[in-house]
Amino acid sequence: MEIWELFVVALMPVLKTLLIAIIGLFLAVDRVNILCAAARHHLNNLVFYIFFPALIASGLVNSSTEISILSLWFTLVSILLAFIIGSAFGWILVKVTGAPKQLHGLVIGCCAAGNLGNLPVIIIPATCEEKNNPFGDSSTCLKNGMTYVSLSMSIGAVFVWSYVYNIIRAYGRKDDLHMKINSTINEQQCDKGSEIFSGGSTEALLSNSIPCYEVHEAPVEQLLGSSEDKTKVTIFKKINLQVNKLLRIVDLTILLRPPTIATIVGLTIGFVTPIHHFMVGDNAPLRVIANSVSLLGEAAIPSMTLIMGANLLRGFRRSRLSLWLIIGITVVRFIILPLFGVLIIKAAKLFGMVGSDPLYHFVLLLQYAVPPALAIGTITQLFEVGETECSVIMFWNYIAASIGLTLWSTYYMWILS
């Protein structure tokens, strides 16, 4: 394909996303008011519990059985590296710009988590359907490409709903937690350590002389009291105290949430051949289930994009987000990460870690050049933290993606063709 044809192929998916976002913005205007705050809340719940898990599961269920999942192990490594590099630069960004603490999780999440869902899902079919695409036969390209994209999307979803979810939760709830604690200091003191310890609470070792709020700041040695009391506390109880403190910061129950469960189910059905043949195909006995799940999954992408567009209206009216913060996130996502991506994938090819399929290499490179994940907007609405700021970040990053992602996709296809 000519360079201008590659450019057009790369541009179309981004323009489609922006168009749907504009429709969401229109539906949120006061005179229309279809996507009001309550409607967005309910639609978010549908996306989180139904549509997005169905999209993940259907993508994996319909994956090609000709490709071994073990041969795609570098997908996990690549996404992990993208999250680590993005998080590092996100942390630097919040320190340099002096962003409010409640937005630290949002900024780091936007730098770390890319849109591994709807954009690659649109880009790969659009590329494969071109007659002179750089990846060979259209049908084979589409089948294999959707396998790569589905796995990438599933792993990305697990990271988003575990790492990004928890980091936004931790920073977003910090101030609220201190306010609640301070409001109760004058009303009561903590119970005696021995009384609380018997109930299994993390505040177990507090004495009456220590106010409740100090449990979050005091070291273990201080909480344990005198040296005589320390001898009465077993190592197991000390470990239990530390584990409970960690669980207050990291919500491990997210590992049992719908996106993660859908990933496990989809991988099981998609890559265990007997089960796959039982559910997928024209003659499969349970094909109606797989088809129904696919139908539900198709609603995820437009729903998330409409929500993003609807949130833009609120963001423009109320957000005071720093311009330098927006520019910083854009630079991380469309300059720094793509450059690291090229170096990482070239090194992986050199050492034979990614096979020889250029389409697989293209999908891996896309992981570094996409704008922030739309699921971040859903997470901010679930916690009601940084919703307006997230909308503004998303808007400008998706505007930038119309240029950045298009140019990077064109470059990727050119060097791989």
From TrEMBL:
Gene Ontology biological process terms in this record: auxin-activated signaling pathway; endoplasmic reticulum to cytosol auxin transport
Keyword Transmembrane helix set for record: yes
Pfam families in UniProt: Mem_trans
Cellular-component GO terms for this entry: endoplasmic reticulum membrane
Annotated compartments: Endoplasmic reticulum membrane
Coiled coil: none
UniProt entry tagged with the keyword Disulfide bond: no
Membrane topology reported for the UniProt record: Multi-pass membrane protein
Keywords: Auxin signaling pathway, Endoplasmic reticulum, Membrane, Transmembrane, Transmembrane helix, Transport
Transmembrane segments: 6-29, 41-61, 67-94, 106-126, 146-168, 254-276, 288-309, 321-347, 359-383, 395-415
Job of this protein: Involved in cellular auxin homeostasis by regulating auxin metabolism. Regulates intracellular auxin accumulation at the endoplasmic reticulum and thus auxin availability for nuclear auxin signaling.
PANTHER family to which the protein is assigned, alphabetical: AUXIN:HYDROGEN SYMPORTER, PTHR31651
Family recorded in the similarity comment: Belongs to the auxin efflux carrier (TC 2.A.69.2) family.
Protein name: Protein PIN-LIKES 3-like
Species annotation: Fraxinus pennsylvanica
